[in-house]
Amino acid sequence: MAPVDAAMIHDITGPLAVRVFREMGGERVFDPERIIMLFDHQVPADSIPAAENHVFMRQFAEEQGIHNYDLLEGVCHQVVMEKGRAAPGEIIVGTDSHTCTYGAAGAFATGIGSTDMGFVLKFGALYFRVPESILLEVEGAFGKRVGAKDLILSLAGDIGADGATYMALEFTGRAMREMGMAGRMTCANMAIEMGAKAGIVAPDAATWDYVTARREIEPFDLAGDEDAAYAERRRYDVTDLAPQVAVPHNVDNVVDVSDVAGTKVDQVFIGSCTNGRYEDLFEAAEVMGDADRFADGVRVIVIPASRTEYLKALRAGLIERFVEAGALVEAPCCGPCMGGAFGLLASGEVSLSTSNRNFRGRQGSTQASVYLSSPATAAATALYGEITDPREV
Amino acid sequence: MRVWKFGDDIDTDAIIPGRFLTIYDPAELAKHAFEGTRDEFAKEAREGDVVVGGSNFGCGSSREHAPLALLGAGVKVVVAKSFARIFYRNAVNTGLLPLVCPEAESIRDGDAVAVNLADGYIEAGGRRLPIEPVPGFMKEIVDAGGLVAYAKNLDEVKRCSTE
Questions:
Q1: Most buried of A4, A75, A231, A343 (most Cβ within 10 A)?
Q2: Could you say which enzyme class this protein belongs to (chain B) (predicted)?
């Protein structure tokens, strides 16, 4: 058993965790200040059951003295990071598989189910199997309009959807050191897509700058031991990496964008905990250049990952550009990635998405197709209505 | 009791699509289990049927609705060549027994099936296939009947230090 430093619950998996907490005889949570609650999957409530869940969770927060970000702040993983609720060396659990995102802050963070969370809410601890680690040494410098998402998609393609099951991925190397926090979050976020329990970027000055700007904490050294035993070491060089696309219906089904260029799309989604930050929206806008319209017949849905990121994009004029070009810009939430709220696909439709999963049925009909890419590739695709290499725009 | 055979990388979106996640009752979830992926499952699955997958069964979302939907359909055992981590824990915690069977791929859809935990095998289609033992700590929780029952007997968790 290990104590947890923080526990995150949201509107989809939280209600079940609270029910389990009660079934376990829970009366008071272990520490309300270590519990992070917010709603992001079905906000604003898209159905009466969703609204009932929100009320249920609000009542629990009030009863227990838990600070509830409610539906005001955005997608859970972005909010946990930007509110400084994750820091190097911490153990954080969340009832969401992409909780591994906080590895970008040097935390050991992992997704758990609702029953495990019920146990955590009561006891503040959980049983863990200590994972073996795979060291990923990522060298080189990215080419034009190639970045973190292309890297993590190529890693998923190389390692496979279950190639890191129960392991921790440790990201190191020049390309990681030179990557900003937004990109590191994109990488850590998708560790789960290789089955990993955690994806950790060794904390450096950039990590501490990010964390200390959000929380009172004294930086300390935290790094892998020089003689640490790794289950495996893998070395990559991103210098010649092309934009990557995951093709239906598995995240590890990854090809160079040229292999699928020309594929017609019905919808482009730019957002999610993977790629909904200001940097991602900026990357998309940069590809747009002087273009003032997205292609006819393509629905472009843009969802900033949080209120903070939305405001940054708004003040920089990005939102205006997207709207003028024909995009639907929605309030921060999981959007089509959740496959239950809005932006769903009909049978036979094709979507290109900057999110993290292209499973059959993930964004609507099981007869629809979802491709995954970077924001740059998504913007290029939105301009032409077919999958397009952003370097050729 | 029959086998429902699935392939590799069966994700939790396939087991229970995202639009049904406001449901928490296992029996209600079961009505939508594998909806759009294998529609006859919800109608025809019977108490004691066994779901069999290939590698990486249960990958994707941490939604505990997935094991609950299978339990609601009467499934008590899932057999696979390998499991995704979160699904494996969720299954144990909710009382759905995940069994790793290296030869799971050779099991056929519709096979008659019986599980013999004590002797470490499943019998499917008239053949005995070895299963891996459920690991120690997990076994304690399964034996207690799931994590809720296990936790009821705990007054305080003995915490180890992370120092």
A1: A75
A2: lyase
Query: B37-70 pLDDT, tens per residue?
Result: 999 999 999 999 999 999 999 999 999 999 999 9
Q: What CATH number should be reported for the domain holding residue B11?
A: 3.20.19.10
Residues of chain A found within 8 Å of residue B57, distances taken between Cβ atoms: none
Return d(Cα A175, Cα A177) in angstroms, integer.
Answer: 6
Residue B99 inside a domain? The answer is: yes
Contact A39, A61 (CB under 8 A): no
Q: Residue A169: pLDDT above 50?
A: yes
* Secondary structure E strands in chain A: 2-3, 6-9, 35-37, 91-94, 108-111, 125-126, 133-139, 168-172, 198-201, 232-237, 244-246, 254-256, 267-271, 299-303, 328-329, 350-353, 369-372
Does the pLDDT at position B160 exceed 50?
Answer: no
**Could you count the other beta carbons within 10 Å of the beta carbon of residue A194?**
25
- Among residues B27, B1, B3, which one has the least CA distance to residue B111? B3
What SS3 class is residue A90? coil
Mean pLDDT of A49-63: 97
Q: Do A340 and B159 touch (CB under 8 A)?
A: no
Q: How many CB atoms lie within 10 A of CB A286?
A: 15
CB-based contact A357:B13 (threshold 8 Å): yes
Contact state of A197 with B61 under an 8 Å Cβ cutoff: no
Q: Compute CA distances B19 → A388, B28, B77, whole Å.
A: 31, 13, 25
Contact A115/B64, CB-based, under 8 Å?
yes
pLDDT of residue A195: 96
How many domains does chain B divide into? 1
Task: Considering only the beta carbons, identify the residue of B9, B65, B154 that sits closest to A161.
Answer: B9
Preferred mutation among B94, B157, B160 to probe A, highest tally of A CBs within 10 A:
B157
CB contact A366 to B (< 8 Å): yes
In tens, the pLDDT along B93-132 reads 998 999 999 999 999 999 999 999 889 999 999 999 999 9
Helix orientation angle between A114-123 and B85-94, rounded to the nearest 10 degrees: 70
Residue that is written with structure tokens 């509110």 in the block: A83
How much is the CA Rg of chain A, to the nearest whole Å? Answer: 20
Q: Which domain holds residue B40?
A: 2-153
Record the pTM.
0.95
In-domain check, residue B128: yes
Q: Is residue B159 part of a domain?
A: no
Chain B CB contacts of A3 below 8 Å: 159, 162
pLDDT surpassing 80 at residue A165: yes
Positive or negative torsion for Cα A230, A231, A237, A243: negative
Q: Angle at the Cα of B78 (from B75 to B84), degrees rounded to 5? A: 130
- Name the residue in chain B with its Cα closest to that of A1: B159
